Amino acid sequence: MSFTSDTILVALELSNSLWLVGTREAGARISQMHRVSAGNTSTLLRLLDGLQTRGREQGTPSPIAVCFEAGRDGFWLHRLLTARSIPTYVVEPTSILVNRKAKRAKTDRLDAEGMLRVLAAYIAGDSQICSMVHVPTPEEEDGKRVHREREHLVQERTRIENRISALLVTQGIRSRPSLRSWERDMALLETGDGRKLPQHLASELNRLRRRLVLVRELISELDTERDEHLTATSGDAITTKVTALSEIYGIGDNFAAVLTREVFYRHFGNRKQLASYVGLAPMPHQSGNVDKDRRIGRAGNARARKTLVQAAWLWLRYQPKSELAAWFYQRVGDLKGRARRIAIVAMARKLLIALWRYTENGEIPAGAVLRAA
Question: Edge-to-edge, what's the strand order for the sheet holding 32-37?
Answer without folding.
Answer: 32-37, 18-24, 8-14, 64-69, 88-91
